[in-house]
Amino acid sequence: xxxxxxxxxxxxxxxxxxxxxxxxxxxxxxxxxxxxxxxxxxxxxxxxxxxxxxxxxxxxxxxxxxxxxxxxxxxxxxxxxxxxxxxxxxxxxxxxxxxxxxxxxxxxxxxxxxxxxxxxxxxxxxxxxxxxxxxxxxxxxxxxxxxxxxxxxxxxxxxxxxxxxxxxxxxxxxxxxxxxxxxxxxxxxxxxxxxxxxxxxxxxxxxxxxxxxxxxxxxxxx
Length: 222
Ligand SMILES: C[S@@+](CC[C@H](N)C(=O)[O-])C[C@H]1O[C@@H](n2cnc3c(N)ncnc32)[C@H](O)[C@@H]1O
Description:
Oligomer: single chain
Bound molecules: S-adenosylmethionine
Helix content: 25-40%
Number of domains: 1
CATH topology: Rossmann fold
Radius of gyration: 16 Å
Number of strands: 11
CATH class: Alpha Beta
Order of helices and strands: EEEHEHEHHHEEEHEHEE
Distance between the termini: 37 Å
Structural class: alpha/beta
Shape: globular
Number of helices: 7
Strand content: 25-35%
Strand order of the largest sheet: 6-7-5-4-8-9-11-10
């Protein structure tokens, strides 16, 4: 997939996303990439936690959009986030530099977005006083998971496009590595995914999705 063509597209809120013609799949919602990321991962995930020290595990680092928004939020709300993110197919610098997230989201802090991408893989890097990044280059189905995860951003390509990312074993493993009270959030609302989460032990709710999507899933380890 590293060699696969990715096209830059503008979504409804003016933010970019990438489209993979060969998969007929986007990295984000065409109804607004930044809007979706804020809704699904920050509002339905990060903002549900009470504590100030938070360990995040993301499936699919991709464009770094979720990481950048989380870094800015951590600064604003004085959180300390340790952010693990696994990515099997890192993007080239050329593609990364074509994305408009820095300018669009927070021009004064766009150096942080660059730092997220420039950070070496497979080692923790302190990006700000509030945000430590640990990018893992590899397969989310194989990689070691951090212990005591508070929050999972499950941001894989859709189950019908990449079914190998959505299976019982991964939800069981994530459940086992999460703290009690931990939250897993995803844009996906499929019944089959909800059932796998329940089977893993989570309490699962369907909640309103971002624009263009009626519902999404949030799973909690009670
Ligand atoms: C829907 S995109 C979202 C990416 C990212 N969260 C963002 O906002 O740009 C899914 C991501 O999962 C990555 N991916 C695909 N297969 C993977 C695997 N087996 N393990 C880890 N990441 C994978 C893709 O390369 C892509 O970056």
